[in-house]
């Protein structure tokens, strides 16, 4: 009997897992309760992989030897509960990819904020240094699909806590943990501790040849490390203390020491601006150094990196008013980082689907930097309650176009209009990219 792998959810990770499972000789079946995107349906048909959409047929799922659950499906899903009750092992897509990666190395990056930026920067440094590597995971191409279709000696993977929840043997050679702030608590029974444990699973299988790069200025990480016995090589990074092995920034100088090689450069040469990006750049530089990349290459790549779309992206300056698209800020901490790097009076566009936000985190920055707030969401009550007494005006809008026009009318020359919503986008938009694209279009139409 062949190994029956059932895949719940037919998004990028589900399809990637299906293609890899089939290639490895598994009997694969894909089930999605929703409607498939056309490109994913075509992928399954082209590979002759059995699937269903719009339903979960219980008997076709519960006869599995193993179930791969897409990261978007929560534990409280009825089908998942039945799978668990029957004792069928559940794995994540990165676990499946890991099983068949061969001798390849993995650099895995997780954290509540800055994952995509840091992952892209590490990949950019590796590519510039001539390494044959792929950018995978939460940032586009699924890890499993890459292993199936175009295996590489090195994978740079952005990993979410949801992907770490169902690992068994997944073991990155280099693990990067940027920060841990309250996010996605709806998926962790509203217990911050559960989410912290989930993030730390990135190092649970690491050994003495592996590296663990983490922020020594993050209280949550440091506190949790106090309860752990580490089996890996620690490389902390900090702006507050001298670091013997790892990275630090003192004044305007970044210093990285991993093995014998030392890399130093001025923070003014970083392509990415803002304090949070100095942390991201340190983490990326240390990761590159563990791979033996020469310091000249690291310096050069850090200078030439282009920042990501929808992440503190300068859109245009219209009549002296600058517009910045930070649509990827889907939690309050992301918005904190965005506001922290603002140096001009700011009109802030906030709102969307609130995942249990605590707006008190940004109160001080709002008082200091924000002159008006424009809400863009279907449910704005909480924003009014949090900031009503702090800013001169809060206006509700229902489209990106309306939000941009309202903000522009309020702005004076020398101001900045910042879209940094602190919320998910699913009430008015398909996703944060769609929200950012509509914002940019509205700015161009002014």
Mind sketching the topology for me?
Blueprint: E1 4-8, H1 12-23, E2 27-32, H2 38-46, E3 50-53, H3 58-61, E4 66-69, H4 78-85, E5 90-91, H5 93-99, E6 105-110, H6 115-128, E7 133-137, H7 143-149, E8 154-158, H8 161-164, E9 174-177, H9 192-200, E10 211-215, H10 219-225, E11 233-238, E12 246-250, E13 253-257, E14 262-266, H11 275-290, H12 295-304, E15 313-318, E16 321-325, H13 332-340, E17 346-350, H14 363-369, E18 370-376, H15 381-387, E19 393-397, H16 400-410, E20 416-419, H17 432-444
GO cellular component, one term: cytoplasm
Domain Mur ligase C-terminal: 310-423
EC number: 6.3.2.9
Q: Could you characterize the architecture of this molecule?
A:
The chain is of the alpha/beta class and 446 residues long. The protein folds into three domains: 4-91, Rossmann fold; 95-304, 3-Layer(aba) Sandwich (UDP-N-acetylmuramoyl-L-alanine:D-glutamate ligase); 313-444, Protein-Tyrosine Phosphatase, Chain A. Helix content is 35%, strand content 22%. It has 17 helices and 20 strands. It has helices spanning 12-23, 38-46, 58-61, 78-85, 93-99, 115-128, 143-149, 161-164, 192-200, 219-225, 275-290, 295-304, 332-340, 363-369, 381-387, 400-410, 432-444; strands at 4-8, 27-32, 50-53, 66-69, 90-91, 105-110, 133-137, 154-158, 174-177, 211-215, 233-238, 246-250, 253-257, 262-266, 313-318, 321-325, 346-350, 370-376, 393-397, 416-419. The strands form three sheets. The protein has a nine-stranded mixed beta sheet. The protein has a six-stranded mixed beta sheet with strand order 15-16-20-17-18-19, with helices on both faces. A five-stranded parallel beta sheet has the order 3-2-1-4-5. Strand 4 (66-69), helix 4 and strand 5 (90-91) form a beta-alpha-beta unit. The mean pLDDT is 92.
